[in-house]
Amino acid sequence: MAEIKPFHALRYDLSKAGAIEELTCPPYDIISEEERKAFLERNPYNVIRLELPRGEDPYREAGNTLAQWLSQGILKRDLDEGIYLYEEEFLSGVDKGEKKSLLGLICLVRVEDFSTGVVLPHEETLSKAKQDRFELMKATSCNFSQIYSLYQDEEHVTKQRLQNLSRTCAPRYEFSDGLVTHRLWVVNDPVAIEALRKDFAGRRLYIADGHHRYETAIRYRDWDREEGRCLSGAGYVMMMLCDMADEGLTVFPTHRLIRDFPSFEPEKLLSACREHFDLSPCANMEEAQEKLTELYGEEKHAFAFYDGKGFTVLTLRDISVMDQLLPEKSVDSRRLDVAILHSLVLERLLGIDKENMANQKNLTYTRSSEEAKGSVDSGESQCCFLLNPTRVEEIGRVAANGEKMPQKSTYFYPKLITGLVMNQMEDRREGSHL
Questions:
Q1: Nearest residue to 162 via CA among 106, 85, 83, 88
Q2: pLDDT digits over 117-129, tens only?
Q3: Is the pTM above the cut of 0.85?
């Protein structure tokens, strides 16, 4: 099963680089170009220069920047190997009034092929994103951000260990980005590390966020062997591991935007939906979302449609239609709201097949319902579908079945911040240390 181990993390020397809150950033794939420039204006050593490089040859630029920062001592490897506790504290709930926290550990995990059943994905991936991450990894031999994964621990043994360790000393870093308070502890105690290694020896890991990066890690491991480089660290990847039953786990939905159909008739689409759905017109988006929340609590399958004229909530009448439509899939996959939307509406009625979805020809995504509505109102999109969030237990069941959800089925909140710790895969014994 899962093999974890400590590592000599690459971290900023704050005496040279500046404050840690100026050096970190959200995941690269949710950052706009304007935001990227703003991070660098605040501090030119921000990790975004490594994680999301620019220039004529961006990957070489990232490699050169990394080498320069290492030689200047901007980045240093920890002298002692360790694991790193990471906590996020944030406000959640409908009115953002409920305080939550999520505590996990950052470590290295042996890269396993999906066929072994040790590390399990739950979403399909996009080829373009994987090629981008592969080129960056080849140029830098480094993980700048951690893959977010979950584990099952009914007795919460590991979570209790982490809580106990976090109480023994003050965090190495603690700061707020305005929405989330981030804390990091460094744990070098070999007894504590060995106890954690044993905890995971019998467990599977479920990827929550970072499917592209994990598939890239597999490809990089294989490429490293084929090239005869044989870096000792190429067979491991940096991960953040959290208890799947942690009360702090929060999943938001990702809404669907439809665009660029030569002739799109919303009335005709809604009429066709009546075959399998009950249609409930709503006065506005707030009413539609309240209706969705109510149906979510009743464990009914529903989503809201908006075409610029009004909102309509579609509720599936009989789930057995999915058994007929996707007999090759497990019951868990057939019960997903996103699978119902994709199969019964997007594919069957609109003709958006899997290749179209993968290329985002007629289908794009957003986490913001306001952004989805605004896109339709501006004419950029022809309509949108607002969804309820996928439940964490649904994610675990689908992954355990060896199946994948459609792209962008989940959005774990908050995102893990990038830049607190990095994993340099080359064996570099020379140089400076923290």
A1: 85
A2: 999 988 777 677 8
A3: yes
